Amino acid sequence: MKSIFNTLDNKQIVMRIHLLDENSKAANGKFTAEMLFRQSLLELDIAFGKQDVQVDHVKKMMCRFFKDQFIKSLIYEESQSFYKRKYPKESNKSQLKEELIQKINRIGKQGKHAIMRMHHPFWGRMTYNDWNYLVWNYIDNHLSDLGV
Question: In angstroms, rounded to a whole number, what is the distance separating the alpha carbons of residues 143 and 148?
């Protein structure tokens, strides 16, 4: 499996993100590049210890119990409905894209040391392998959906 911590794999993801434009949409028309940027930034901010989110107590209990199954299934579904986070009404999509690229590059340079939080507010205790699986597969699958 490819890894977000591997420098070559990391560069490949960044190159694919560069191919996206502001109007990129999935074939089904439901998922957009902006959604990928926002959700990926949220997960990376959590990993870097820069973001806390509110999670419904019932969902939190269920997800901690079934973490592996949920992470694998949510790769393909949009998990934004599980988190409560306010986004600015106006956003610059190219700015979101550059911020995501910077954060992915940070992981490429620092490796596992970039991950500052081993406890996810939603998933509970996380290993480096869990973070890799969550971040890599989420971004990789949605980039494929967006045609890159």
Answer: 5
